[in-house]
Each structure stands twice: as C-alpha cells, then as structure tokens.
C-alpha cells in the first residue's frame, strides 16, 4: 500500500531490486516495479547453500553412526563365536593341572572402530567438520 503511493512513472524508472528469497516480497516487487530486474541477495544464496551442506553433513553423520554400531555388533558377535569355540576346545582337550606351560588364556578383544588416515572415526570427523564447512 505504501509503495502504491509512489507515482507509477517513478516506479517504472526502477531497473533493479535486490531482495531475499521471500515469495511474498517477490510478488510485491513484481506488482509495484514491473520493469525492474529482481536480484537475489548473495548472502541468502550462501546461507541456503550452508544450510544444504549442514543437512548433508548430518545425514552422512547419522549413516556413519549407524554403520559404526553395526560394525561393533558384528565384532561382538564374532568375539562371542570365537569364545564359544575356545570353550568347546578346552572342554574337549583339558589341561594337565601339573603342567603350567603354554600361553595365557585368550580373552575377548575390545572393539576398536576403524580410523581414518588422520586418526579419527568417520563420526568424529563429521562432527568436527561442522564449522569448517561454513567458514571455507
């Protein structure tokens, strides 16, 4: 309503309008300044790009966390299977109590996640890279 108070001849002289992505603002600009070229503000383009990158980073982080959990479960199942095999072997081949030679009893190994070249897991790297994407 305020822009309509400006005479139409003056409004037609406007050649360029810089604005954000707002649809309502776009329709107002088109109605009030029909001959103007609408330019989207660079800040908002970069902001949208950063939001898109952040969404992708979070999606990859969730996938990496799920993958790491599956790896840990598979590792634990494999360790359980090996422990059962060792127990079965010990049962079938009992030791002589008087002899104390041989190696130590093998215990279950703790899970160590796969590390990248920089010594981090995928999840750690994707967590750390949060601010780096926006700054570059």
UniProtKB/TrEMBL annotation:
Residues 75-111 are annotated as: Disordered. Residues 83-111 have a biased composition (Basic residues). Pfam families: DDE_Tnp_ISL3 (PF01610). Residues 3-103 form the Transposase IS204/IS1001/IS1096/IS1165 DDE domain. InterPro entries: Transpos_ISL3, Transposase_DDE. This is Transposase, IS204/IS1001/IS1096/IS1165.
């Amino acid at each position: 309503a305020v822009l309509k108070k400006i005479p139409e001849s003056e409004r037609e002289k406007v050649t360029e309008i810089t604005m954000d992505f707002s649809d309502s603002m776009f329709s107002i600009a088109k109605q009030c300044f029909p001959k103007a070229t609408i330019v989207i503000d660079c800040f908002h383009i970069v902001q949208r790009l950063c939001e898109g990158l952040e969404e992708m980073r979070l999606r990859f982080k969730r996938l990496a966390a799920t993958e790491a959990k599956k790896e840990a479960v598979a590792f634990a199942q494999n360790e359980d299977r090996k422990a059962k095999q060792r127990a079965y072997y010990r049962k079938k081949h009992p030791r002589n109590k008087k002899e104390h030679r041989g190696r130590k009893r093998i215990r279950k190994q703790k899970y160590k996640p796969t590390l990248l070249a920089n010594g981090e897991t995928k999840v750690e790297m994707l967590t750390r890279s949060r601010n780096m994407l926006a700054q570059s």
